[in-house]
Amino acid sequence: MKQASTLSLPKKIIIGIQFLFVAFGATVLVPLLVGISPSIALFTAGIGTFIFHLITKGKVPVFLGSSFAFIAPIIEATRLFGFQGMLSGIIAVGLVYSIMSAIVKWRGPALIDKVFPSVVVGPVIMVIGLSLAPVGVDMAKENWILALVALATAILVVVFAGGMLKLIPIFAGIVVGYLVAIFTGNVDFTPIVDASWISLPQFQAPQFSWAAIIYMIPVAIAPLIEHIGDMYAVGAVAGHNYVKEPGLHRTMLGDGIATAVAGSLGSVPNTTYSEVTGAISLTKVTDPFVLRISALTAILFSVLGKISGFLESIPGAVLGGIMLLLFGSIASVGIKTLIDSKADLNKTRNQVIISVILTVGIGGAVIQFGNFSLAGIGLSAVTGVILNLILPEKSKPVRMK
Asked: What H or E segment, with its residue span, contains residue 374?
């Protein structure tokens, strides 16, 4: 692996910017979907990455970007409790990460494996993707031609492209879809024209809301498990056990504090990016300093008003086309989680857990406690955890006739 001693500073800068572009499409897509400026997400991604590196002693080659797991909860929580109220829920999610990091330091990762096994995490991830499917379809049908162009481009890149291009299917799909939209007269350039060259991100202060906090906290389960998987993955790529040193408790704490800071500034939650881990594997560059260059670049991009204007000018149908692939891909990750863990689906208890999680999450079940409510992804996650803890391990297998 290429470390600091083997790379010149210009090469580090080029690779660092390249890593940002791997994460760029996903990082700016989340804020666009929830209706906020992408500049704030770029800013908090950069700041969050620096926070993560500070807490992990600068040892882990990770970039934090916008989390897709929270798109549906953010949209619904904003509708129910207002945007500023929803932000307090994001801060609470970050604090949950911090609490879990303390538990991991105390009891070790085995406790998380017991409470959040694959039969809970897998279907919750599936719910995250499938519950967002109607959003993608609604945006795509604004202009099916643009949507299909963006979708086809992303699919072709994923399936046939090689090298670094294979790592940026979202970015490639948006660029090609945007170019076709320009040639067909479907782009409104007003946001670009009106934007200043230099413009600070649009920060917003949170407003305390117990209801939003209770609504958002359960959604943290799936990204929490994803974080653990990412730490093992990047460790395998770099040839270093980051779960042991600097420790999973430190990486989890870094992710949590970064998310809490993002919420306090009016942005979306952060998460470790598997796409960047893929880029690290491809380039063989594991120097964490390079990822800090990516973070600095994200911050610089966030104050360039014309970039934000460009992102806001992307037609909704182009984004919808990308989402048709992206949200389905999230659901497929849930299926892969069950397959990779070799979960025994002949066990009645496992079938019950998976079935109820999917039904509750996709069906839109809601539990109301006065002014508080629990619904969707959060309710399905809580339901899965409870069922996993109370149902006996030994159960009769289902006999197929």
From this structure: strand 372-375
pTM: 0.74
Mean pLDDT, range 261-271, rounded to an integer: 93
For 118-174, write each residue's pLDDT tens digit. Answer: 888 888 878 877 877 887 888 899 999 999 999 999 889 888 887 767 767 878 888
Instruction: Please say if the pLDDT value at position 397 is more than 50.
Output: no
Q: Does a structural domain hold residue 281? A: yes
Is pLDDT larger for residue 323 or for residue 59?
A: 59
CB 345 within 8 A of CB 398: no
Is 64 strand, coil or helix?
A: strand
Element (H, E) at 105: helix 83-107
Q: Are strands 366-369 and 270-272 parallel, antiparallel or unpaired?
A: unpaired
Question: Structural domain tally of the chain?
Answer: 1
Tokens of 227: 């974080």
Give the domain extent around 236.
4-334
Q: Quote the longest CA-to-CA distance of the chain.
A: 68
281 pLDDT exceeds 80?
Answer: no
Q: Please, what sign has the CA dihedral across residues 36, 42, 47, 51?
A: positive
Burial class, 364, CB count within 10 angstroms (exposed 0-12 / middle 13-18 / buried 19+): exposed
Residues 6+ apart with CB under 8 A from 261: 44, 47, 48, 51, 94
Q: Is residue 106 part of a domain?
A: yes
Q: Which residue has the tokens 């494996």?
A: 113
Instruction: Output the average pLDDT for the chain.
Output: 84
* Structural domain contains residue 373: no
